[in-house]
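Summary for the steering committee. One of the milestones for this cycle was to obtain a three-dimensional model of the protein with calcium ion bound, which we needed before selecting residues for the alanine scan. The sequence and ligand used are listed below.
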Amino acid sequence: MKIKIYAVLASILLSACGSGDKNKNNSANTQYFSQVQAVGYVYQQANGNRLLEGQSDLQSLSPVTIDLPANIVWLNSVASDNESIWSVMLDNGNIKAFQVSSTNAKEISISPNHSDTIVQPTLVLTQQQQVLIANVFADASPYSSPVIVDKENGVRAYVATNGDLVLKSTNQEQRLSLNALNYSRVLIDEQKRLLVLSQPTLSYNHQVLGQAHQNAARISLVQTEPNLEVIRHININTPDVIEGNPLIWVDVDEDGDREIITTLSNINQGARIQVYNEDGSVYAQSTAINLSYRWRHQIAVGPFKNASEISLASVYIPHLGPVAEFFRLDDQSMSIENSGSITHSSHLSISLNVDKTLAGDFDNDGKLELVLVERNQQRQLGMYEYNDGGISLDWSLDLAGTVSSNLSAVRLNNNQLALGVGVGKQLQVWHP
Ligand SMILES: [Ca+2]
Ligand SMILES: [Ca+2]
């Protein structure tokens, strides 16, 4: 695999670091940073798992509501002691940030504060309290978020528009000609290895992210140290493809090795959940839907049923007739309990926003809730719990408007959870 290393004139690039006062008609510049304190991804965790640790009682809180001049497309959050910082990417390209507490919200500076293209942001808070968007604006795909590889030195990895996977720091750039999908998430583990979708394919004509976004025929496992290099490609054999981008890369059976959770689809059977070992062998797989053009949306891995069992929460056919599914993962059985149809869903329409859902304990009862959006009006969040008889709507939060962004949640330093969502021109945050 070809690696190109470019020396970059760090002094020139550092001088381009934004002050937050940039002329908003100019394209945003890529910023260099170091000593990262906290990172906020639209998909919550850098391993793709949309699960929050910690707990809070959101039902006892009134939301803090912030008015904005345009609709919120993407929402990111990080903790700042027992308060939190929220950034919004608006549909006019403006980017704003707010420091939020249980009773108050104040606007704070963020850099850049405008992007000519709507990007999927990664929010960074440095130890010097700078609030930054970590995206690379020169050649990065706007449909993918950069991941922070090295917090101390601000090294990040991203998918370029030409399909390269790029590792970038202030004074060095390494590129891998990976044929990565432009919407692929870049996941990372504790060894600074990356997981990326690659090898676009048109072999199955059903794209849940939008017609312009092909499916993937390959998962690439990549090392970043000592050099950016492919460890292994896991090839998906026809007629199967990987449909959608919410890969999850966690150790589901606590044997020390991570598993890779994917949604595979084909024209004959629709979608199934397939879990790979890192060597490319199959760890477990679910049964298929057995209807073509029907998708499953894998969301979060955690102890949904009880503390001693690890399950995957997924939504079956999220657009047409959603069913919440919990697959047992830790014993490889993929045994499943269905709720029957539910009135909320995780992916409300064909779009790149697969993040209108997450999981955590938001009512302080020690059990996880799967948070979904009401399907018709999209003005309510539903909190679904795994019960002995199946899955039920436990409680809900009414919203001030229609959901327009991803859901975002953050664990504060006191272990409490805050939850936020963009509803058109308003940001609502339930903050303990
Ligand atoms: Ca494992
Ligand atoms: Ca709970």
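Key point for the committee: Residues 3-430 form a domain with the Methylamine Dehydrogenase; Chain H fold (CATH 2.130.10.10).
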